[in-house]
Request: fold
Amino acid sequence: MNLYQRLATLIPFLLLACANLAQATEDLEIHDAWAREAPPGAAVMAGYLTLHNHSSETYTLTNLQSPQFEKVEIHRTEERDGMTQMIKVSQVILGPKDSVRFQPGGMHLMLMKPKKPLKAGAKISLTLSFSGETSMQVTLPVKKAEASIHHDMQTHMH
Amino acid sequence: MSKPIKLFLGSLSVLLLLGAALYLGEPEADAQASDNNPAKLATPKPLSEFQLMASDGRPLNRDRLKGKWTLLFFGYTHCPDVCPTTLSELATMAGQLTPEIHKDTQFIFVSVDPRRDTPQSLAEYVQYFDPRFIGATGSIEELAVLVRQLDSKFSLGTSPLGEAIVNHSSAVMVIDPQVRYYARLSAPHYAEDLLQQYLALRQHTPGTPIP
Reply:
């Protein structure tokens, strides 16, 4: 097999990858993405976003990565035994027409060990990977928290 | 100084060895909430002496709570979600107080993570939210003295991967100028609600000294 033949064998995979990406972009939508500026001394930032699934398929979010952080995890803040705890979430299942909200005091992205400090105004690029090799890119602007952001969440917190 | 340090190191090594959570503070049966304000205790509980070190280098004890209303929150600086959210809501709320009320109100963030937080590191942390905020911490034993009196809890542990685990009560505790545990504002916290609740609590106390 010469080089061109080798490359040619890759084409279907590349097309498939593109198709997956395009499909995910159409099926899934992300908005209200932002990350909280880390206060001095904090080595972890919290990120928030809303993920919509417009399709009739089920998507399972399995992995998160950002070139700006050593590790990205999903955690859920939970009240247990009279204390606030953080529980690691290994995957998020997004059913047909479902949406999931990552919000303060609830499920959130743990952006761990930034390679460089990120102040308000910076942008974080994040890749969300779903089972079935679908992935999606999102940019999270870094902000200082604003009280107004939280208010419409009140009705969604139980 | 050597005894508390020894005690602290002792507790620390136990924690690290076992990798288990240490629970502190026995939440007593919650004092009956008063009729007119669900956050307020029916009978305010006088606090007995406790001793922590504040971020301004001065001790934090009973004396420092006298004559002022105190809004106190337990947490830790490595907490990415609940603590910064609550502190920024408290900062927004503080900004909405009239100068007279602000003058006799103090905001204290008590770190229950003495493994990583020090009064010095807390200074920079709390002032990021509001330059008037005070941070404080102490040994596990010293912290427990205050935590218990405020019907709160915290636990420290280590995950199997070696990551520190800190769990803590998330209510904002209100202590009145007579140094009595006066009310408990439950999470989630929003600046507007905190403001309304706090102002309502003050109104229920006729004769509150305003210096």
